[in-house]
Amino acid sequence: MHTIKNQFDVVILGAGAAGLMCAITAAKRGKSVLVLEKSNKAGKKILMSGGGRCNFTNLYVAAEHFLSNNPHFCKSALKTYTPADFISMVEAHGIEYEEKKHQQLFCINSSKDILYMLLSECSDLGVELRTGVDVQNVMKHAQNPSDQGFKILIDGVSDSIVCKSLVIATGALSIPTLGGSGYGYELATEFHMPLISRQASLVPFMFSDEIKDLCEQLSGLSTPVAISSNQKTFEESMLFTHRGLSGPAILQISNYWNPGDDICINLLPDVNAQEALLEEKVNKSTATLKKYLNTFLPKALVLQLEILWWVEHKDHALCEISNAELNTIGAQLNHWLLKPSSTEGYRTAEVTLGGVDTNALNSKTMEAKDNPGLFFVGEVVDVTGHLGGYNFQWAWSSGYSAGLFA
Ligand SMILES: Cc1cc2nc3c(=O)[nH]c(=O)nc-3n(C[C@H](O)[C@H](O)[C@H](O)COP(=O)(O)OP(=O)(O)OC[C@H]3O[C@@H](n4cnc5c(N)ncnc54)[C@H](O)[C@@H]3O)c2cc1C
């Protein structure tokens, strides 16, 4: 008779980036490892990532690329397992990759390469993966309160699973259809661990004022900008969509934006627009403002800006417009203040800010300080990366660190 094994050294909840890396690392140490995945297949976010090409790491990774209540927490794990370590694994599997701008590394063929690499390592090392599993309950399973051990109850399965170490790698709230879940936070709360409040991030902005219509008119248009909020600035491209603003610049700044905050968009990051307009006036330019600005910005955008900022001068030559008005328009071009009404939320957010408070975790091992044998890795932890491969690097590094001790 075939009996289902129900005792393991390590059980990992979640077969995403962090969980699979943790499984590989623990199995390499000779541990018996079981990964329990709620979804019908492993690594759905890996498959969807980087537009299907998985931006799996970045050549330059430092603590400055991460947000957390404790900005130092991520340092130890990032040093223990570096981008170079992950690249060696990718190369050992013969996966072709390329460097894109900002030192971002992407697969040349498909994100599938990364997922298959992780799954084949797991399988070679004897890691057991069970998908479509609904974890009902997790409790301590030990003789004495100080002993290490956990019991896991699965919906529809009579025998519970017992393990010495339990790793929570259930990810975060973003994109429920790709496995986004709050289960890790629920478990942390059950184990009396503090949480940092959560917020959708790396996410497009929406507007309820006249900017909503402008975005709709310009939907599909992308332009390079410098964008700032809360003393942080990113120079990247910005995309107008039928719902609002998106593109790398917007996603990056969304990490630093709180509801009610303004964002400041510099449409001409390399030009002092006030000086340029006044200089053009001195040169007695007979061009209209629109014609002049068309040399710097996409025509469709300039047309919308004209409606917004200088419609009464639309037929005037630039030299006929007063200095004061040119100064105002120039200032708006370099400091366009907008107030998003909201973000698109978890439906489209790439990540979730906040999570399990790092104060409750050991930064070297990812183990809960007050719950021996309980580990939290990846996005469920209050560590969030910038756009550019940093979130996967955090998943690899934190998963690996826990795998060394679980
Ligand atoms: C569309 C998209 C594109 C992205 N592109 C990139 C990119 O190119 N580069 C980058 O660095 N980052 C990218 N990210 C972010 C990156 O995917 C995440 O930061 C990373 O996947 C987090 O890894 P994780 O293992 O912590 O969580 P996840 O990868 O989300 O894995 C968590 C797993 O746990 C499972 N799970 C949830 N609840 C339970 C439960 N109760 N029991 C069992 N299993 C459960 C989920 O189904 C999932 O499989 C992207 C995110 C999205 C949404």
**CATH homology group of the largest domain:** FAD/NAD(P)-binding domain
The rounded Rg comes to 25 Å
For the record, give the distance between the C-alpha atoms at the N and C termini, rounded to a whole number: 31 Å
> Could you say which small molecules are bound to this protein?
flavin-adenine dinucleotide
CATH architecture of the largest domain: 3-Layer(bba) Sandwich
Number of domains: 2
Beta content comes to: 15-25%
The top level CATH class name of the largest domain: Alpha Beta
Mean pLDDT: 95
Q: SS-based structural class?
A: alpha+beta
Describe the fold and architecture:
The protein is an alpha+beta fold. It folds into two domains: 7-200 and 351-405, FAD/NAD(P)-binding domain (3-Layer(bba) Sandwich), CATH 3.50.50; 205-343, Translation factors (Elongation Factor Tu (Ef-tu), domain 3, Beta Barrel), CATH 2.40.30.10. Helix content is 30%, strand content 24%. It has 13 helices and 21 strands. Strands 1, 2, 7, 8, 9, 10 and 20 form a seven-stranded mixed beta sheet that branches. A seven-stranded antiparallel beta sheet has the order 17-16-13-14-15-12-18. The relative contact order is 0.19. The mean pLDDT is 95. Flavin-adenine dinucleotide is lined by residues 13-19, 36-39, 44-45, 48-50, 54-55, 135, 169-171, 174-175, 178-179, 181, 183, 350-351, 378-379, 389-392, 395. Flavin-adenine dinucleotide (FAD) is lined by residues 13-19, 36-39, 44-45, 48-50, 54-55, 135, 169-171, 174-175, 178-179, 181, 183, 350-351, 378-379, 389-392, 395.
